[in-house]
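ok so i was messing around last nite and threw this chain in just to see what happens. nothing serious, just curious
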Amino acid sequence: MAIGLGNNNEKLDAIEQMYLKRIINHIKNVLKIDVTQYKDSYVMRRIKVRMKATKCKTFKEYYEYLRNHSDENEKLAETLTVNVTEFWRDITVYKEIHKIIDGWVADRRKRMIRVWSAGCSSGEEPYGIAIIISEAMEKHKRKLLNVSITATDIDKEILAKARRGVYHAKQLKNLPPNIVQKYFIKINDDEYMVRNTLKKFVRFQYHDLIKDPPLKNMDMVLCRNVIIYFDKKIQEELFLKFYEALNPGGFLILGKTEILHGEAKKLFKTYNARERIYQKPENDNN
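result:
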């Protein structure tokens, strides 16, 4: 990894450069997180978040702190892999998703809906999509519609957390009260668990976006606020993987700060530029 600059573009001296490399190696070898595909600026920001939290002023201090405090490993790992933490975050994009899904469910010819939540983190996104599908199924009386939502991530611990489906009340703040009551069980004043009626739609599995082949035959792929952390070359490769994953007419949904580029820009049609929603052409059978 060619990290060599600080937040203010100042050159690091030889000692700081050495300790930064040691931190990167620690992340790779101890935390088992491969950051070589992340943007340098992102990794630097994430490390500095933990430096500030631990009151370490230099990379040398933080490296020594990391070596001497085993609990810091988990905190650094969480900071590096931080992701969506609320249901229906960016409500405008979810309104568009709702329109797409409602159209699918209303179409009696459509017997199956397959969705891939790529980089699903702790599960808010796939469960949030499951709520939209479930509500549409009830509205259009489609009890027998086959629904499969596959949620993937590289963090096995966070996948285990997602399977449990327990969330803090603040993570449900974007959901209407009737939806919370319908799809969640209140555990205590601050925690809610996803009901089994919703869990049945979602399957969580380990998947490395870079190394593993894409899933197939998907109607929708959501990969929001994930690819921004990869370098441009890897982003272009991932876009092509998502294209391969989709059925003709299927949708790719990215984060608000993410945009298609490379070969994929020519392959996809723009469905909603503002919400970063793209569509695989209907006549493409690749």
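not much to say yet. Residues 91-279 form a domain with the Rossmann fold fold (CATH 3.40.50.150).
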